[in-house]
Amino acid sequence: MAYARKGDRYVSQSTWFALSQSTLQLVTTVTLLSLTASLLAVSMGAPDDVAVIALAAVGAIGLGLALVRLFGFLEANGIPLLESESASTA
Q1: What pTM was estimated for this model as a whole?
Q2: Shortest CA distance to 35 belongs to which of 20, 50, 18, 13?
Q3: Alpha carbons 19 and 28: distance in angstroms, whole number
Q4: Could you report the per-residue pLDDT of 50-81, keeping only the tens digit for each?
Q5: Residue 12 CA: distances (Å) to CA of 34, 55, 69, 85
Q6: Is 58 helix (H, G, I), strand (E, B) or coil?
Q7: Is 84's pLDDT higher than 70?
Q8: Which has the closest alpha carbon to 88: 10, 19, 31, 1?
Q9: DSSP at 44
Q10: Whole-angstrom Cα distance, residue 43 to residue 69?
Q11: Which long-range contacts (CB under 8 A, 24 or more apart) does 23-28 make?
């Protein structure tokens, strides 16, 4: 399968930026949903469930922010094994 290289890149910078923005929107949504779920759990009289909700939210937020950093790196540098200077000269 042949890949079209546009500007010496397999994946354009705008694609990585769009992925980063979508991930940030998802992280924001997860944060708001976890806040709502924890407030609902407290109001229903189940404060022990708040810890479980908080741990799940922290894990999801951490994963989302790690993905945003990865997409930022790939936007700036490209895919290391495919788009590096040594790979393009070989």
Answers
A1: 0.78
A2: 50
A3: 14
A4: 999 999 999 999 999 999 999 999 999 888 88
A5: 34, 35, 17, 17
A6: helix
A7: no
A8: 10
A9: T
A10: 36
A11: 23/64, 23/67, 23/68, 23/71, 24/64, 24/68, 26/64, 27/60, 27/61, 27/64, 27/65, 27/68
